[in-house]
Design a protein that fits this description.
Number of domains: 2
Shape: globular
Number of helices: 11
Distance between the termini: 72 Å
CATH class of the largest domain: Alpha Beta
Order of helices and strands: HEHEHEHEHEHEHEHEEHHEH
Structural class: alpha/beta
Length: 323
């Protein structure tokens, strides 16, 4: 064989190895964690903790990419569905990811089958608050006021179909009131109107609500967990507030486009597990009122199926309209 033929043979033998080395180098560029909401809310906060901790632990670059577009996060989530399944575009969303298809007839994806389920990462209760000027100090007292003067009250939610929205609808049903729930595009504007007195009740993650409670701008009534939150130990649970027990957690997960590259799926599954089960991640989440909720790919998918069934019943019972 002449030297030209030998060179070709040598090149052909090295190409597969070079390709394998490149695949094994994932991620070789920044990984985008899409948050389908504006900066500043609970989903954004959890995403930034995850991205920062992943970057430190792996030495790779993970960045938060806010792609707000309304519609319960449908726009940003749709971007992820259409992205290349190479592991460089991920979605971080909350429980509203599962609820939105139940109340929005124009969702262009299936939350079970159109994503690769990567990991469950966090969960936390909601803080139910009212205005400091309100005389009620418990949920039971508050809803007694509402029943006595229903036209004087409006409730708020930071997102149609969010955990906070469902919690308020459940409470309305238990109290026997039909108060309007005003939908806002995010926690920021909802809490601004709460503080201003335009609306009188909201259930929102501790991350966004507690600072206003500590500053005296909002009055806490209850938390939507079965036990009190360590961050707000003086705030009773819904059951302790004189109403039937309610557990409504805001939970968070990571997804990728379906048919994710196996090497990327394996890498992400391992490093996210390492982060979510780490002391550093737990400590950072605790400040926000959340706890780690690790679920592997199969467990997250099963959890999504179960939560879909649970939320379907709540939507039907509460008469939440499909938009």
């Amino acid at each position: 064989m002449n030297r030209f033929g030998t060179a070709l043979l040598s090149l052909s033998m090295t190409l597969p190895a070079a390709g394998l080395a490149k695949a094994d180098d994932y991620p070789s560029r920044p990984v985008s964690i899409v948050v389908p909401y504006p900066p500043g809310g609970a989903v954004d906060g959890v995403a930034r903790v995850l991205a920062a901790t992943l970057s430190v632990k792996t030495g790779k670059t993970f960045v938060v990419d806010n792609r707000a577009g309304g519609a319960g996060g449908v726009v940003g989530s749709s971007d992820v569905v259409k992205a290349a399944p190479d592991g460089y575009t991920l979605l971080l969303n909350a429980s509203i990811h599962v609820v939105t298809p139940l109340i929005n007839k124009n969702v262009p994806f299936d939350v079970v089958n159109d994503f690769t389920h990567i990991s469950g990462i966090a969960a936390g209760p909601l803080l139910i608050t009212t205005n400091p000027s309100d005389k009620a100090n418990t949920l039971k007292e508050f809803f007694a006021e509402v029943k006595a003067a229903p036209d004087s009250y409006n409730f708020a939610t930071s997102g149609y179909g969010s955990a906070g929205h469902l919690a308020v609808e459940v409470l309305k049903g238990e109290a026997g009131v039909d108060t309007e729930v005003v939908t806002y595009k995010g926690a920021g504007p909802a809490l601004t109107d709460m503080i201003g007195g335009q609306v009188q009740l909201i259930a929102d993650p501790i991350l966004s609500s507690l600072p206003h409670v500590k500053a005296g701008r909002l009055k806490p009534l209850a938390v939507t967990s079965l036990t009190r939150s360590p961050l707000a130990p003086d705030v009773p649970t819904v059951a302790e507030s004189g109403m039937p027990a309610l557990e409504m957690l805001s939970w968070y997960g990571v997804w990728a486009p379906k048919n994710l590259d196996p090497k990327a799926a394996e890498y992400l599954g391992k490093v996210i597990q390492d982060v979510v089960t780490s002391t550093e991640f737990k400590d950072k989440l605790t400040v926000f009122g959340f706890e780690p909720m690790y679920k592997n790919s199969a467990d997250l998918k099963a959890f999504v199926v179960d939560e879909t069934q649970r939320y379907s019943k709540i939507v039907k019972t509460a008469g939440i309209k499909v938009e």
